[in-house]
Write a structure and sequence with these properties.
mainly alpha; three-stranded parallel beta sheet; 5 strands; PIN_dom; DNA binding; DNA-binding protein; DNA-binding
Length: 132
Amino acid sequence: MKITADTNVLARAILQDDAGQCRTARKLLADATLIAVSLPSLCELVWILRQGAKLPKEDVSGAIRALLDTKNVVMNRLAVEAGLAVLDAGGDFADGIMAHEGKWLGGETFVSFDKKAVSLLTKQGNAARLLS
């Protein structure tokens, strides 16, 4: 079966915080011929893992990379890598995703009131502007 995984399915499989749902999620993911993972699901997943489960960024980054490298998982690899680059640098995964997708949609400059996001994106060679 080809599926699109909701965030809660991915979270249960990773966190193992509900034994029954974890077994169900892992079986479904293992049996699927294709697992489509959307960018919003990944952003939610990273938020859950960082803010809810309080996992270190290295563990979260490792979990996303493991998904990215799984043979039956498909996702927007370039956007995910942009998100991981910002996460690994100490920022928010979603900021990297938004900057990447904005550029893909034709935006030239990422604008934000978030000083850290603008600083990290600029250091990575992205056009970014801090608003005041």
